[in-house]
């Protein structure tokens, strides 16, 4: 499971669809409607939020918005739109790690997208997150 901190606009088609599905799975975990993935590291930041489901629904709203830009048909009804807006902290080190991780995936999966993103000077996180100083988040599983 990868719930990207990066803004979903950077993901290729396969990545955006996977993000939608995996984030919906995370929502089911937080709702208690599935038994698996309860302790998955990607969920820690949402579980630490004052209102975890609100944070996750807000995150999903951004993913859904990107899907609309691309004319994808993600089901809007999967999101509880009554969420209370919030922000969660995200370290700059985590954002940098995810940029490198995404570029590695795109290098083999979508060369056109990879080349486009290689020229980027600055990157945005999903608006749910506010960037703070720091290294890679402790919950991240670092692949060498």
Structure characterization notes:
The protein has 144 residues and is mainly alpha-helical. It has one domain. Helices cover 47% and strands 6% of the residues. It contains five helices and two strands. The protein has helices spanning 13-31, 44-47, 52-69, 92-109, 111-118, and strands at residues 88-91, 129-132. The longest helix is centred in the N-terminal third of the chain and has 19 residues, at 13-31. The model has no long low-confidence stretch (mean pLDDT 94).
Q: Which characteristics define this entry?
A:
144 residues; 6% strand; mainly alpha; two-stranded parallel sheet
Total of domains: 1
Strand order in the largest sheet: 1-2
Largest sheet: 2 strands, parallel
SSE pattern = HHHEHHE
**Fraction of residues in helix:** 40-55%
Write the layout of secondary structure elements.
Blueprint: H1 13-31, H2 44-47, H3 52-69, E1 88-91, H4 92-109, H5 111-118, E2 129-132
Helix pairs in contact: 1-3, 4-5
